[in-house]
Specification:
Oligomer: single chain
Number of helices: 3
Largest sheet: 3 strands, antiparallel
Strand order of the largest sheet: 1-2-3
Strand content: 15-25%
Helix content: 40-55%
Shape: rod-shaped
Radius of gyration: 25 Å
Structural class: alpha+beta
């Protein structure tokens, strides 16, 4: 009779269920967070290159040289701490082109080699 009582007990079933489902839930939540940070970084880079390309065509006192344009782009990256070396400037037939290339580290503390390349480019007609 004691064996039957032991089999019918449900005291630890919640702990067992959490042990099976918990790691998957935590992993999915971490992946959603990393995906959001990746999209935030891409959006910041796109805003920075668009702003810098416009500044290079419109405001020559602030964005007159390539180094000034790179520095301006770095300040326009939506709170990201991207170095100015991520951005580059050139003049083409479409106008002033500002490009950015950055390697985003995914789960940088867990997987040190995992990274995703992000690129952004904007062209603003020169006046």
């Amino acid at each position: 009779m004691k064996l039957l009582d032991f089999i019918r007990r449900r005291d630890g079933s919640s702990a067992i269920e959490f042990a099976m489902v918990g790691p998957m839930f935590i992993g999915i939540m971490m992946a959603i967070f990393q995906g959001g940070m990746l999209l935030w970084t891409q959006l910041g880079m796109e805003h920075a290159v668009e702003s810098a390309a416009r500044c290079s065509a419109v405001n020559s006192s602030t964005c007159g040289t390539p180094s000034q344009i790179q520095g301006y782009a770095a300040t326009q990256a939506y709170g990201l701490n991207l170095p100015a070396s991520v951005f580059s400037f050139s003049q083409t037939s479409c106008g002033n082109v500002v490009s950015a290339s950055y390697s985003y580290s995914v789960f940088s503390r867990v997987f040190s080699q995992a990274s995703i390349p992000l690129n952004a480019q904007a062209c603003f007609p020169a006046s």
